[in-house]
Amino acid sequence: MTTENLLRVLSAIAAVVLGSGGIVVLFFVANWLVDRLPRNVRPRLLPLVYLAPAVLLLFIYLVVPSLRTFYLSFFDARSRNFVGLANYIFAFTDRGMLIAFRNNILWLVLVTGISVGLGLIIAVLVDRVKYEPLAKALIFLPMAISFVGASVIWRFIYAYNPPDVAQIGLLNAIVVSLGFEPVGWLVNRTVNNLALITIMIWLQTGFAMVLLSAAVKGIPKDVIEAARIDGANELQIFRRITVPMISSTIVVVATTIIVAVLKVFDIVFVMTGGLLDTDVIASRMIREMFNFRHFGRGSAIAVILLLAVVPVMLTNIKRFRQQEATR
Amino acid sequence: MPQFSKDNLKNNESVPLQRRFAPLFLCGLGLALVTACGRSPEATDGGENNDTRTVTVLGAVTGGQLDDLRAALAPFEEQTGIRIIYEGTDAFTTLLPIRVDSGNAPDVALFPQPGLMTEFIANGQMVPIDDFIEQEQLTQAFPEDWLALATFDDELYGVWLRAAVKSLVWYNPQQFAEQGYTVPTTWDEMIALSDRIVADGGTPWCLGVAAGDATGWVGTDWVEDIMLRTAGPEVYDQWVTNELPFDSPPVERAFTIFGEIARNPEYVPGGGVGALSTPFGDAIQGLFTEPPRCFLHRQGNFISAFIPDGVDVDEQVDIFPLPPIEPQFGTPILVGGDLFGVFNATPEAQALIEYLLTPTPHEIWASLGGFLSPHRQVPPEAYPDELTQRQAEILVNADVLRFDASDLMPSTVGTGTFWSGAVDYIAGSDLNRVLSRIQGSWPDPEEGVY
What we know:
Largest sheet of chain B: 6 strands, mixed
Structural class of chain A: mainly alpha
Shape of chain A: globular
Number of strands of chain A: 0
Strand content of chain B: 5-15%
Number of helices of chain B: 21
Helix content of chain A: over 70%
Distance between the termini of chain A: 61 Å
Largest interface: A-B, 55 and 52 residues
Strand content of chain A: under 5%
Radius of gyration of chain A: 26 Å
Shape of chain B: globular
Oligomer: heterodimer
Number of helices of chain A: 14
C-alpha cells in the first residue's frame, strides 16, 4: 500500500514536471531548430512554431471532442444506431428539458441582471467611502469559494426542520421567530429556483463589482466636475456619464457571467439534485450522460449548450475588435 | 503594455536557458519511466515472482468496507497462491462499460446489483457461472430465490457476496414498552398503531428522503415494498419489465398507500416537506430523542451504521419485518445485494468463484459486522450481535424475495424518473400526472438502455 501511494506521488510530480517543464523545453528546442534555418525564413516560421503546440492541443482537446460530440448526438444511447434528430427532438420536447430551459432563462436574466446591477451600484457607492477596501474585500470574498463550497454554506442557511423542532437554518430561524411556519426553501416549488439563483448572485456580485469599480475609477474626474458645474445631480451623473463611459466593461462582465451561468450545474447538483423542477441544461446534460448513460441525448444537450454560448462569445469578440479599432 | 516585437523573438538568449532546463527535463523523464514500470503488478512485488498467478477484480466496494472485503478474500490468496488485484471505484457503473468496450475487462467484477449485468450478457461479454461450476454446488450455496435473481436466459451469471434487507421497520423497544405499544403483525395494525401514536400526541413515522443527487431511492423502496405486499411477486416482476405500465391501477394503489403515510403531516414530522428535507441517514435519530420525535422507521439493514453514538443498541434498537397487506402474499422481503460476475473464465477466476461458493468468505465478513450473507451455510452464530442475527432470520424466513425494482429498471427510470417521480409525489404532485410521466420516460426497448 505505501509503495503504491509513493508511486502515485511520484507520478504526480513527474506529471507536473513533464507537463510544465516539457512545454518549456519544447519551445526552446523549437526555437533552437528555427535558429539553424536561413535568416530569411526565420521570422515567418517562428510565429508558426510558437503557435503550433497551442493550436495542436486545442485541436486535439477541443475541436476533435466537439466534432465527435456533434457526431454522437445523432446516435442512440450506446452510439450504435443512427437516430437522426431524435435526440434533439427529445431535447426540445421533453417536459424535464423544457423546465431546464425555462430555469436557465430565469438564471440568465436574474443572475446576470442582479449581479451586474448590484455590482455597479456597490462599485459607485464604495467609491465614496473611507473603508472602501474593507467593503470591497468582504463583497469579493465569496468569489474565492468554489460553487460546491458555497452550496454547502447555503445548505445551512436554507436548512429546514419540522415546526416543533428547533430550526438550525438561518432563514427558517428568522421566519419562525417572526411567528410563521418554517419554509422548505429547497423543496417548495415557488421558491426553490430563486433560492439556488441567490447563491450564484452571491458568488458573482463580487466579481462584477471589482471589474466595474476599476472602470468607475478610470472615468476622468474633469468630466464629472464639468457635469457638476453644469448643474447635474448625482443620479444624472450616474445615468448620463458613469454608465455610458463604462458600458464596454459592463458588457464584458455581463457576457462572462452569462457564460458562467450557462455552465452552472454544481449548485443544482449539490443543493437539489435537479429534483422538483430545479434542473438546468448543464445538470441535465451530466445526468443524461453519466447517470443514465444515454450518450446521444447527453451529446445533443451539450451541442445545444455550445450553440447557446456562441452568440455570447461572438458579441464579446465583436466588441473587442471595435475597441481595438477605436484605440 | 508589453508586446512581442520581432526583435524579441529573434534574440538568442534562449540557448543558455535551454541548457539550464535540460537536467530538469531528463529528471522528469526518468521519474516517468520509474513510475511507468511501477504500474505493472510484477514490479511492485519486487520483480521476483513474475510467474505469480493473478485474477483482476473491479468492484464498487471502497473505503472501510474494502478492508473487510480483503479480509474475506485473504484465505483464498493464502491457500492458492493466486493474487487478487482488486480495483475499487465509486464510478463503477461508468468505468466498467468503458473497460469492457476497450478490451480491458477485469477477469471478475463485483457488481452492486444484477441489473448492470444485463447489457454485458446481451452482448455475450460475460461467462455463465454454470459453464464451469456444478449445479449442485450452486444450489448448496444459495437459496433458489437468490440464484433466480442472478439468472438471465436460464443461465446463472452471478455469485452473491452481500445481501441488503430493506423491508425492516426499526423501533425503540424502551419507548414502546413505556407507551404500551405492541409490534404490529399486519399493515392495518400498523396503521392503527400510527393513529394511536397521533392520538397520544406523538408522530409515528421517521422519514428522510434527501440523499444528494441520489434523492428519491427511499421513496421508491417504500413503493416497491408496498407493491410486493399489494400486488404480489408476479405482478411485481411484470412491473419491473414494464409489462405492467406505471400508470396502471396496481402501481397507483402502491403509491397511494405510501402517500397516506409520507404526505400526512400528522404521520411524518413536517409532512412531505419534512421528509424531503431530512437526509436519509438522519431520520433514524428521531427514535432516540427525548421525547421521541417519531416511533417507527422503515429502512434497510445498512441504516444501523447511522444509529447515533450513545444509543444502547441492545436495549433501544429492535426491528420487525414490514407487515403484510394482502394476506395471500405473506411477508415479502425486498432485498439488494452485491454479486460477482465473470468476464474472463481464466483458471484463476474459476478458482475464485469456487472459493466464493464456500461459506468461508461469507463467515469472515459476517464476523466483522454490518454484513448479511445470502449464503445458506452461514449459521446465525456467525453474526456478531443479536440485531444482525434477527435480520438474517428475517431474510431466511421471507415468504417471497424480490430485488429492488429501481435497480433492475433502465437507469433513465430506475435512477431517474422513478426517483424524481417519488419525490414529486411526496411534495404533493398529482399522482396520475407523476405516473404518466414515469411511464412516458420508459426507453424504447430497441435501444437496449439498461
